[in-house]
Amino acid sequence: MSENFAYPVGLRLSGRRVVVLGAGQVAQRRLPALIAAGADILLISPSATASVEAMAEAGEVRWERRRYREGDFEGAWYVLITTDDPEANAAASAEAEARRVWCVRSDDAEAASAWTPATGRSEGVTVAVLTGQDPRRSAAVRDAVVEGLRDGTLAAPRHRTRGPHVALVGGGPGDPDLITVRGRRLLAEADVVVADRLGPRDLLDELPPHVEVIDAAKIPYGRFMAQEAINNALIEHAKAGKSVVRLKGGDPFVFGRGMEEAEALAEAGIPCTVVPGISSSISVPGAAGISVTHRGVAHEFTVVSGHVAPDDPSSLVDWAALARLRGTLVLLMAVEKIGAIAAALVAHGRAADTPVAVVQEGTTPTQRRVDATLATVAEKVAAEGVRPPAVVVIGDVVALSARDHGRRNRR
To answer: What sign does the dihedral 11-16-20-25 (CA atoms) show?
Structure first.
């Protein structure tokens, strides 16, 4: 039992001499971690892979283009042997043993005095796994643990005191699987979550009972939480020493008022981390089979907020310029004003028969798509009872997606 049992330890190699024999594929995989650890690396090998040579040219390692010689391990703290010369490996291993230098051998683990674990990292946590002579199992266990830490399914909250901090997390278009790995991990670590109605609601059910969820839903034309109140809630909970996540739909900085919240936090002296999210402007059309760009059809797409009518003095949109574009137009928050917007586009020159698709509750189980044209979209939206949240896509890519959808259905 004792022969195959390794005592795990973390080596602090910053500024300490590490000797690597061989510069092939094994060394190529191992060197980046040694470089990241700040080791003083001496690489000994007559030749090297292109990637290892690039490390040497960048000054990350010192490379001596020769074979191993007795005495190379003088002053070394750690040795990595990766050559394909059994005699040289055995001689080098014997020197390391004589000098009491921990030595890893890629060709013969049993002859080594140290083993390299399967290692992974996630937000300051290093996971190292050893399973004796089964490296594939070690890698599988490492991957499972690291993935769990990254996506939040393996909860490992911090327990040391931290200063005030808020994470502005983009939750994506609605499907809980479309939140980023980092966003999901931060949710798993949160003490307080300030959530929008359009955020991935299913993720809130996964939160532990102690997590306080604050409803910041801005329900259209109904009850809402003023932006100032949201800002104050973020600041107050952060100053109380709690881990705060502001969970938004889509991306925090795409019509999400994320910058307003970041500015309020900055004024209060509270650090803020912005975690980008998948914007509904491209993900919802994609979920409905619409590519907002397509070679030979659309070379650009433009995303516009439609919450203000074209004739409203407060509108910042140049609708005449948009009408002259030949690419795809994506409208967010435009259900109520779609009639006025369609009329403005036609009045400024966009063809009345331009295809339009309205995708309601995209990426969720209740997703549905309504197709129309600029001339008919207002009537279709009213007749079909379309309600927010919905994304409107205008352009020839809509017709293209409809044809492809029809061909797929006929197969």
So the answer is: positive
User: First CA to last CA across the chain, in angstroms?
Assistant: 61
Question: Do 183 and 155 form a contact (C-beta atoms < 8 A)?
Answer: no
Separation of alpha carbons 29 and 85, rounded Å: 19
Burial class (CB in 10 A: 0-12, 13-18, 19+), 144: middle
Nearest by Cα to 377 from 352, 402, 360: 352
- Alpha-carbon gap, residue 356 to 36, rounded angstroms: 52
pLDDT at 1: 38
| DSSP bridge partners of 103 | 79
Q: Express each pLDDT in 17-60 by its tens digit.
A: 999 999 999 999 899 999 999 999 999 999 999 999 999 999 99
Q: Which residue positions in the chain have pLDDT lower than 50? A: 1-2, 160, 219, 221-223, 405-411
Q: Decide: residue 305, CB within 10 A, 0-12 exposed, 13-18 middle, 19+ buried.
A: middle
Q: Of 81, 90, 94, which is closest to residue 44 (Cα–Cα)?
A: 81
Residues in the chain: 411
Return the structure tokens found at 181: 């790995």
Q: Which 3-state string (H, E, C) describes 96-119?
A: HHHHCCEEEECCCHHHCCCCCCEE
Supply the pLDDT for residue 410: 37
- The backbone torsions φ and ψ at residue 118, rounded to the nearest 5 degrees and listed phi first, read -75, 120
Contacts of 390 (CB under 8 A, 6+ apart): 334, 335, 358, 359, 360, 361, 362
Amino acid at 409: N
3-class secondary structure for 14-67?
CCCEEEEECCCHHHHHHHHHHHHCCCEEEEECCCCCHHHHHHHHCCCCEEECCC
Nearest to 233 by CA among 191, 201, 197: 191
Does the predicted TM-score (pTM) go above 0.90?
Answer: no
Catalytic center residues: 196, 218
